[in-house]
Amino acid sequence: MLYGITAAATALLLTALLAAVLRAPALRLRLVERRRTRDVPLSGGVAVVLVTGLVVGAGGWLGVAPPPEGTRGVLVAAGAVALLGLVGDVWRLRRRVLAAGTAVAAACVVPYGETGLGAGLLAVVWVVAVVFGFRGLDHADGLAGTVGVVTAFGVAACAAVEVMDGIAGLMSVLAAALTGLLLHNWYPARVALGSCGSMAAGFVIAVGAVHARAGFGVGESAGVLFALTAVAAADVVLVLVSRRSAGRGVLRGGPDHLAHRLRRLGLTAPGASLLLGIGALSAMLVGVLAHAGRIGASALWWVAGGALVVVFALSRVPVYGPRRSVSPQVGAPLRVRNG
What we know:
The chain is 71% helix and 4% strand. With 339 residues, the chain is mostly helical. It has a two-stranded antiparallel sheet with strand order 1-2. It has a two-stranded antiparallel ribbon with strand order 3-4. Helix 3 runs antiparallel to helix 4 (71-91).
């Protein structure tokens, strides 16, 4: 207990300090996320990754942390994903490259001995989806950090139920580091996570959840995993469905995520992040209680149903401009009338 409190407090303070210290170098190196008329330095992701690894590693080196139970492998794989994301922040790697690298990292740490090969491969796909879900949430100030804190605490609770102290400790440190980031990342953000931080956080959370659910039935595990990551999953589904419906490429970016649509409905930036954070908390509590056997698995259907209702409702919010085509005679863009 004392180690957990000390590690969490240390992670929170160090992340807040390091994110601020790295802000100026990130601006000089032009490692920034361009938002409207201002540049937001991507020092937050580097701070979260470094502090999480440092605090967990120091605890193991000093002999005061819980048994690692596979956390070292998870940290190494997460470091590789973070490095891949950092390269993507600098050189704008294609999404398929990011997905392939994440899949390889996930395949190296999924516990096939407990899940089996088939379920393990499905877990790899799910980890990649969650990683891209968190990467997509980073478009709004404070959103990825808020959802990450909530989800990490939920996975920590599930791991604690299974007496997986190493995973639970890792999730607690990550949650504390993301909380420290929020001191700078809440609206108006002074630093951002970037692909480095959002992908690494999503990876650690997803793999930790897979470890906590390893050995359970595939169907119920899918429900619990979805509940733990409901907001990130709903954002991925919303984006894929809306882009396909609009005839756009699914890998083509656009202002079509959850927070974008809530802003179009009149919510403020912090209001949208807070509302989605409350949604993540509600779904997470259902997932944790279902994992612990405190409520029936049927409650997970309510989470799935609620997410589908939200996706359907927000998919009706117009976010794309009018379609354009090119005249074969002149080459000038022509506006296509709706309907």
